[in-house]
Amino acid sequence: MTAELLILLIVIVTALAFDFTNGFHDTANAMATSIATGALRPRVAVALSAVLNLIGAFLSVAVAATVAKGIVQLDAVSGQALLIIVFAGLVGGILWNLLTWLFGLPSSSSHALFGGLIGASIAALGWGGVIWASGSDGVLTKIVLPAILAPIVAALVAAIGTWGVYRITRGVDQDKTTEGFRWGQIGSASLVSLAHGTNDAQKTMGVIFLALVAHGSLTKNDDMPLWVMAACAVAIAAGTYLGGWRIIRTLGKGLVEIDSPQGLAAESSSAAIILTSAHFGLPLSTTQTATGSILGSGLGKRAEVRWNVMGRMAVAWLLTLPLAGLAGAICWVIAHVIGGLAGVLVVFAILIALSVLIYLRSRRDPVDTGNVNEWPADTPDSAGDSRPAVNPVERATPVPANGAANGNPPAPELEQDRPRPSATTAPPTEISSGRTTRRG
């Protein structure tokens, strides 16, 4: 086995690892609202989403073509040099995905991947190594512009849809409305899962296709191999089934309180926008689309929006491309300085070590099916106000009226604190000289 073939295998494994992280990082896009409203039980939701992601991955390859041919100037680099660029970009994307998952931030896996590839390409080839704009193609047209428009359009569509839903059903019994819309949510969430598989699994397909072109196994005009499609479909489905509960909690409970009509409107708008973008080959951020839809559903209902949570999400969105790019550039520099297969193995070892550290850190504050619908509202900033946190033990422990608590001595009893006889209470008696006499 040659060193270049071994590097190709490592790149493919790393790409499938990114696809896996994409799955559990973005499960919330499809299922957070259905889990939050109780339309689906958590495990049933992620299982359904995994199956539909698997199916959706086979529906189109338009996005894969954009990723494979629309970011890196393929005429400027080839062979092992291109393989290392792709590898470094994947590592940058994985690390950003894991870091944002740790903090429960629904950032874009797509932009993490693109940022990593762009950063590695700039480090290796300079600014000219990236296709910034080429007619209707290029990073600015296919990635940056959709990133700006998608959440705005999704929020607008979801807000109008939510307002319309509540107007139409305002005279209907609330219990019947809730039950009916929960059934509707199952269908709309399924459609988002199908759309997610169609859009996001293709991005990893495009990266593997790019690696195969670099190795010489394919040319850039060849069709996507079936085994690549199948491997990516299985990887994203497996990651989806894992859950990604931290981000599900943020989208389902952290941004707005969601009712079933809102959930249906948000999921329907997300599905429509994601499927449309996949048809035109736009590698859209499903995370930003889903988040915009959930925000719009809250605005359409005039529900309380936790703008501090939305602010943290927006900051993560802005930082994803540059910081994932920085990580990709650093990984390329390390691999390039060491050189060849040894450099790739060192970066791969760094990836494994950092991934383990992030996972171990996440176990200090685990989120799973048991608490995914419990937003930590006892922290001042998560509820959108500045009220002090209340210790659950103090909340549950009764405090005596005289002030004795926490081991402190009771306060002296004052005259006004003593119980006084009521009008219906018999006056006290007095025993004197063996006779019982009554006062007054």
UniProtKB/TrEMBL annotation:
Where are the stretches annotated Disordered? Answer: 369-440
Q: Is the Coiled coil keyword given for this protein?
A: no
Specify the protein name: Phosphate transporter
Q: How does it sit in the membrane?
A: Multi-pass membrane protein
Which keywords does this chain's UniProt record carry?
Answer: Membrane, Phosphate transport, Transmembrane, Transmembrane helix, Transport
> What are the transmembrane regions?
44-68, 80-99, 111-132, 144-166, 226-245, 314-335, 341-360
Which locations, inside or outside the cell, does it occupy? Membrane
A Pfam family of this chain: PHO4
Q: What is the lineage of its organism?
A: Bacteria, Bacillati, Actinomycetota, Actinomycetes, Mycobacteriales
Similarity comment: Belongs to the inorganic phosphate transporter (PiT) (TC 2.A.20) family.
- Domain of life here? Bacteria
Name the principal localization, coarsely classed.
membrane
Task: Locate the compositionally biased regions of type Polar residues.
Answer: 430-440
